[in-house]
Write a structure and sequence with these properties.
Length: about 220
């Protein structure tokens, strides 16, 4: 029997790549994302990168045996290096690039002050403790330079890291999503209904059926 942790066994969203589900623009965007390796960086320096990588691992931990992990840090770095922004921000926050640089430096300063080591050198418990304090707005080292830690955590860390994770086909396979519906669209929009090109979820004792069906999913 297939591992129960795989809710969509046999499903690979990239099987749709050259079919009618996606247009040329969608394919180009996906090719760009898939071209990013886990160590691809253009914006952050080495120290910032180490902190960001450790941070991403706490927010969206991935299976250790995953053969194609989502390059979360690289996706965040690529967004900032490319100058893409949300188009809005909280009045208490600097622009996205400055917020990230300042926030990562501040997390390292807080880690050294409280635990005697940089953030990426701490164990998981200590990292989580710092992130809980950041979420609560309880981190106030001068390195924050007036930027509330709670806003950094909510708007940049949670926002950018989770969006980066779920922008990647590996995450789409994990949740059984078919990717952008352009130009095909979706037809069966009712509860617990799906189009034939969508992934079949594995039900208890029916994993093999879902696996066989998902191997046929495509265009």
């Amino acid at each position: 029997m297939l591992p129960r942790k795989d809710l969509y066994p046999g499903y690979d969203v990239l099987a749709k790549r050259d079919g009618p589900s996606w247009n040329a623009k969608t394919r180009a965007v996906l090719d760009e994302r898939l071209g990013l390796g886990p160590q691809t960086r253009r914006f952050f320096d080495e120290a910032e990168w180490s902190t960001l990588t450790a941070l991403a691992e706490r927010i969206v931990p991935q299976p250790a045996d995953r053969s194609d992990p989502v390059p979360v840090a690289a996706l965040v770095d690529d967004k900032l290096a490319s100058g893409r922004q949300d188009g809005y921000r909280d009045a208490g926050m600097p622009d996205e690039r400055e917020a990230w640089r300042r926030g990562l430096r501040a997390l390292d300063a807080e880690a050294r002050a409280r635990f005697g080591a940089c953030f990426h050198d701490l164990n998981a418990w200590a990292q989580d403790e710092l992130l809980k304090l950041a979420e609560a707005g309880a981190l106030t080292d001068p390195a924050w330079d007036g930027m509330p830690s709670t806003l950094f955590f909510k708007h940049r860390v949670l926002g950018d890291v989770t969006k980066a994770y779920y922008a990647h086909p590996t995450a789409w396979n994990e949740i059984g999503w078919g990717g952008p519906a352009s130009p095909r669209g979706y037809v069966r929009m009712g509860f617990d209904r799906r189009d034939p090109w969508e992934a079949a979820e594995a039900k208890p004792d029916r994993e093999a059926e879902a696996f066989a069906e998902n191997l046929r999913v495509g265009d």
